[in-house]
Task: structure prediction
Amino acid sequence: MKTKSKYSKFSLYLAVVLVLIFVLFPVYYMITVSFRTQSSMFMNPSFLPVDFVLKNYRAAFTSEQFGISLRNSLLIGIVTTSVGLVFSVLAAYSLTILRYRGRDTFGRVIVVAFLTPGALLFIPLAVISANLKISDTLHGLMIIYLSFVVPLGTYLLLGFFKNLVGELEEAARVDGASRLQALWYILLPLIAPGIASVGILTFTACWNEYLYALVLNPSPQFRTLPVAITFLQTADETPISLIMAYSTIAAIPILILFFVGQRFIVEGLQTGAVKG
Amino acid sequence: MSEQSRNHKKIRSRFRFQDSLLGYATIFPATFVLIGFFGYPLFYEVYASFTNSTVGQPGEWIGLANYSHLFSDPSFRAASLNTIIYVTSVQSGKFLLGLAVALLLSQQLRGRNIWRALVLVPYALPGFVAYAVWRLIYNPDVGSLNIFLMKIGIIDSPIAFLSNPEWAMPAVVVATIWKGFPFWTIMFLAALQSIPKELYEAAATDGANGFQKFKHVSLPGIRPVILIVFMISTITTLNSFEAIWLTTGGGPGSATTILPIFAYKSLTAFQIGESAAAALALVPVLFILVFFVMRKLKKD
Result:
């Protein structure tokens, strides 16, 4: 019995190691290649860390396009997340605590919008933002991003609000204008983990968004990072190691956010999916 | 108890009017966004799919012509078939791998929390980064997969995985599974944890072995989560534009062109009406999927 359990313990750890290699190899590889040069990659093809040159990073941080795109991505992420959080908290509050005609319909529309993928709507959104003259602008993309940030945020926050049944009852008894104060002073501190989780997830969603940014903001001065990376590749050449350096820089903020907020994110995803 | 509830009722009715007012006021910003940038675009898209609109031209009403043209178009049929193959393989892979890793990481292991955090990495990595890296992994000249396979002697000459018609689809499927399976793992882990230990103990006293416990305790316990995750993840996979656009671009030929790629290509050809119809072709599938999952969930 004992030897058998020792044997199975060993195979468990072996399985963990195999899973981790599969999961982590691409990230390791991306970082390794980002420290190589294009010519050395072709002369000495290897996936081991054989070079350590900072040329690609220097090229990234001295590139004007990179600076502009990094700034665009940060601005869009921060503004959209902040505005989206305010809208989503208000909506989730409205849908859980207040009673009014049509509330359930609003709730259902939120779920439908949450489930609707961007690939379904990019065509009309391109036409509409061209008509509104907001295509190829930063504020235009921010507004368009609200269309998926608000349903995502509201849907996830609904789960957090629904967990607060007792406190909701309390807050519901407060009179008149102080209702909103109750939201601010009583409910918000209680759903702070939810706000952290939704904040990280929506910022990530904006930072990672590719299709809308590609279709709506092709001009160099309004490109976000993902689009800028796509444009590094030309018909003549693919600067592989430079692309990997850009990618590493683009991935680091998100990886840090995920590890700092891992507990909140996992809770947010689970609350949203299981209770929503 | 009854007095208290009567009291509640009184308070409720007193505040009903305020409730409505505040209710509409707080839902307004979200509704504004949803009507303007979700409801209206959707409506517009349905309308445009019945017109021969092109970029800059509103076009004329042509009824179902776009749809009948699409369904007789062999490249649209190929894209639909590709979508079915892609989504089915990706989702089976994510389910199996996601469940296996969740079961593995729910065992008593040293450093379990660290392993759980690390498994999240593909999910945390931005899609545009992940698929650029996979494209490099598959590269025939300098890619790690070819280097590795040649080193251990499985192949003699490099395979251009992404431009080979036979390999392109499996290659893209593996990359998509890699990116997406951790979401399933996190969800399954949480669901497995919420199953009461007593159930396993009861099963053990009844003489159940490991597999029986899995089949009769774990699986029913995580069934609702499986259904919800299946629904959300299938919808995203049906629409994985970047997974394919950034690796194969839909090629070689149209070997990996799925419907969102097809719609994007018709949009870049300035055919708004036609690309709207192509994008909307997925909607009935989404409806059936959501309906099926919701009904199953209600039954439980």
